[in-house]
What we know:
With 244 residues, the protein is an alpha/beta fold. The protein folds into two domains: 21-122, Metallo-beta-lactamase, Chain A (4-Layer Sandwich); 128-232, Metallo-beta-lactamase, Chain A (4-Layer Sandwich), CATH 3.60.15. It is 22% helix and 25% strand. The chain has eight helices and twelve strands. The protein has a seven-stranded mixed beta sheet. Strand 6 and strand 7 (129-138) form a beta hairpin. The longest helix is centred in the C-terminal third of the chain and has 11 residues, at 190-200. It is globular and about 55 Å long. The termini are far apart.
Amino acid sequence: MIGCHCPVCSSTDKRDQRTRCSILVSYCGKSVLVDTTPELRLQAIANKVDLIHAVVFTHGHADHIFGLDDVRRYNTLLGSPLPVYAAEATMRTLQQAFSYAFTQQTQTGVYRPELEPKIIDGPQEIFGVNWQAITLPHGRVSVLGFRIGNFAYCTDCAEIPAPARAMLQNLDTLIIDALRPRPHPTHLSFSQALAIIDDLKPRRAYFTHLSHDVSHQDIEHDLPANVRVAHDSMILEIPGASLP
Length: 244
């Protein structure tokens, strides 16, 4: 947090050094990036994300989209436009904020992203695998969570409504929004996230999108054994994910 020197912001525990949340989903020799945070370039270099083949967006808030310009490097490496998947409202936000990346390039030698927009309006097949989009409330807007096989990613949400819970049964792994111990109008608190995990009963679950209220170590001390806290550079393997 800018201008903050609290124990978490000053921590030497690398797990407390939290950049904005994003994940990379890899399967079938393809890598799909979920959200492009303002730290995307630094995240990609630190984690040796040398290539991505598509980007999927959960929603259009600044902390989830404003690294999009840096995908231009992947255009160079791929030698082709990059597919970008988003709900219609999110795509409008992207096309307004990054209009130059969605227009046909007429000048040679201009280094900018080349994006191929693809609207998500239901289950979406990406490189032969079904991504089931799940609508979740985030204050006055809706965001998309995703189920891929028996893995699900639900960030930036204030609740998991009943229709969404029905789509999140029998999970191996759930990554879920859990901002802080105190309630928040647009994010799940720790206790709210734990109640949802207890209801859905995934084999394991991970908190994401944390604030700087509590250190990684102190949070995990009080969590059930099957619930951990996600951190930068974490790698998860999803067994039995029903992917090719």
